[in-house]
Amino acid sequence: MTTNSILFPSQIKMTSFTINNKAYSHRELNCIQDFFTNEQWDIIDCALIEYNKLASDCAVKEETVNEIKQVQDVIYELARTAY
Asked: How far is the C-alpha of 1 from the C-alpha of 33, rounded, in Å?
């Protein structure tokens, strides 16, 4: 570890990230992020939020609501680790 990485932890480069219990390289995550534009990711996120609201209002199984949240968590994790 260099002096710069101690003083500036943001300069430390992680070699892999774990999402859904699978390890991905930074390059792979960037590739996945590039499947859609930022605007398209926002639309997907908004659609999941609306679906989650509808599922909650319509007495959909709690398991389904949890699955929606898990998908959102994966998308948020991807957004945090890409680029």
From this structure: 29
Tokens of 36: 């859609």
Comparison of pLDDT for 25 and 7, the residue scoring more: 25
The two tokens of residue 16 are: 């892999």
Range of the domain at 23: 3-81
Distance, CA of 50 to CA of 68 (rounded, Å): 10
Report the length, in residues, of the chain.
83
Torsion of CA 73, 79, 80, 83, to 10 degrees: 160
3-class state of residue 18 by DSSP: strand
How much is the CA Rg of the chain, to the nearest whole Å? 17
Model-level pTM? 0.67
